[in-house]
Design goal:
The chain is mainly alpha-helical and 194 residues long. The protein has eight helices and no strands. Helix 6 runs parallel beside helix 8.
Amino acid sequence: MKDKKLKVSFNSPVVLTFTILCALTLFLDWVTKGYVNTHICSVYRSSWGSPFTYVRLFGHIVGHSSLEHFMGNIMLILVVGPMLEEKYGSSNLIFVILSTALATGVAHLILVPGYALLGASGVVFAFIMLSSFTCIKEKEIPLTFILVAVLYIGSEVYQGLFVESNISNLSHILGGLVGSGLGFVMHRNKMNRY
């Protein structure tokens, strides 16, 4: 009888690559004493003539201010992301991530120009809302989707209005909206799965 050896599989390439990019960015920011986050991975008001402005519109999702910030976002992404990648496909998940980055980055520049935006929390909220579509049936809205929307998005609206913190509730809300919108589109098979 042959021994069956366990092997580690790269089961979710988009989620794992994203995690590696975030970890690498955190390390590079530490090595450069904050240069990477400040100049490449934070969205803030800058000249539209600078190519880094456009890089930051997407790069902000891989930067994190601390190990705790990184762990808080990445743990949720690692829990929810592989299921989403299996259900919707790698290219659709990349589209969700990039759409969330662009939506949160542009909205932040327009609505909150005096503060820098950094981190993957918008992606986390997009994944959370998208995950509630995994069991959806034709002409039904899952109660879990409604509860997740009310609890997560409602909490962010409340905190944005009444709690002063350095957390971007706007990116959480927009991430949730992007995840919800793309969940409806993908459920109706308007996006190819591959």
